[in-house]
Task: structure prediction
Amino acid sequence: MSNELTISNPGAGSAGPATDVGGAGGAGQGGFASLPPNATRKAEIEAIMRTDFARYEDEGLDKEYRALLQGEIEAVNPEAGNPTAPMPADASRTVLCSSQEGQKLVGEWERMGGFRMILSSVQKDVGEIVKEAGNNLRQRYLMQTFTEAVPLAAEVALMDEFASGVPWAPPASQGEIDLFAKTEAGKIMVQHWGREAPERVGILRKRAARLVDSLTEDEAADLWAWFDGLDTHVVTRIFRKMAGG
Result:
């Protein structure tokens, strides 16, 4: 839902979920949306990234670098106005490698069978979820709130979870199903799954546990706080995607 996955158009208006009317466009991690292409500045930051990674992160150059990359894409890509247009693989790799978590993910995906192939699959899954938000303004708003609220470590963990596929999990107990169905989205999905509810809820519980185990307490809290604010129809789409049906 962020720049590693899609090309957003931060210069366009962003709509709140209720009003469908918005003001300035979404910012990237740390406040930058996009910056005009600047090859000289980009080269300076890349040199610092290679020689002094601590300075690169401490001074917020990672955020500026992402904004410069986003500006380059918006300048040349005719689909920049499409909120879910996938970012090219090479640009995605560069953005991910601007953080230690992202570097690790890129390496793991290469070992799993190829960065480009896995990225394409994740982009497709995330794009389908974002489209569920509604029109372009609502899609941009969803991506903006994700970028602003969810820590980078949680974003990378989510990408890895999408890439890992639907796992086997022990069926959920009736008590666990009842707890899941206390939310509106959970109730809808239990009715939709019918006899498959124990299997599907069990899968969701396992995937949620894997996410929590990979994050700090604060990172997980920020992720779930963002998730709890989503519209019901977006949540049900996420549940179906993550549970495999």
DSSP finds 13 helices and two strands in the chain.
